[in-house]
Amino acid sequence: MTDACLRTPGQTPEGMPCSLTLSEQIVEAIAEQAAAIVLERLQAPPSATSPYLTVNEATEFIRAKPQRIYDLLSARRLTRHKEGGRTLVLRAELESLIVAEARNRGGPGVAPRPANPHS
């Protein structure tokens, strides 16, 4: 390999192809490291990156259509946060809304809200 190949990845200044031969052990080590990085990123919870969700992420989170999120925003049951042109909602606020709705319905695994004796 020439010094020119080291300075210009892929080609020499004259446009000649440049290649690098790696041992099978090196290729395997690179592949294992890349796989470990991908696995780590896939297993990291989304909340580790941001407490906010885009509308599309929120719809995936609650398994609903985007219009449901927009309806909740319009009804002010969720707070609209704008970042540039994007609309964001807080993950924790969405989780709280889901729990509250499940309690009101007496959903699975959630005890129904006791009747208010003062009403």
Q: Keywords for this structure?
A:
119 residues, mainly alpha
Topology at a glance:
Blueprint: H1 3-7, H2 24-43, E1 52-54, H3 55-62, H4 66-74, E2 81-83, E3 86-90, H5 91-105
Antiparallel strand pairs: 1-3, 2-3
Helix pairs in contact: 3-4
Describe it.
This protein is mainly alpha-helical. The protein has a 3-stranded antiparallel β-sheet. Helices cover 48% and strands 9% of the residues. Helix 3 (55-62) packs across helix 4. The chain has a domain at 50-105: Arc Repressor Mutant, subunit A. The model is unreliable at 109-113 (pLDDT under 50). Strand 2 and strand 3 form a beta hairpin.
Number of strands: 3
Distance between the termini: 85 Å
Q: What's the helix count?
A: 5
Strand content: 5-15%
Cα radius of gyration in angstroms: 26 Å
Query: How would you classify the helix and strand content by structural class?
Result: mainly alpha
CATH class of the domain at 50-105: Mainly Alpha
Q: What is the 3D form?
A: elongated
> Average pLDDT across residues?
80
What is the second-level CATH architecture of the domain at 50-105? Orthogonal Bundle
Largest sheet: 3 strands, antiparallel
Order of secondary-structure elements? HHEHHEEH
**Helix fraction by DSSP (H/I, runs of at least 4):** 40-55%
Weakly predicted, low-confidence segments: 109-113
The largest beta-sheet arranges its strands as 1-3-2
CATH topology of the domain at 50-105: Arc Repressor Mutant, subunit A
Give a brief description.
The chain is mostly helical and 119 residues long.
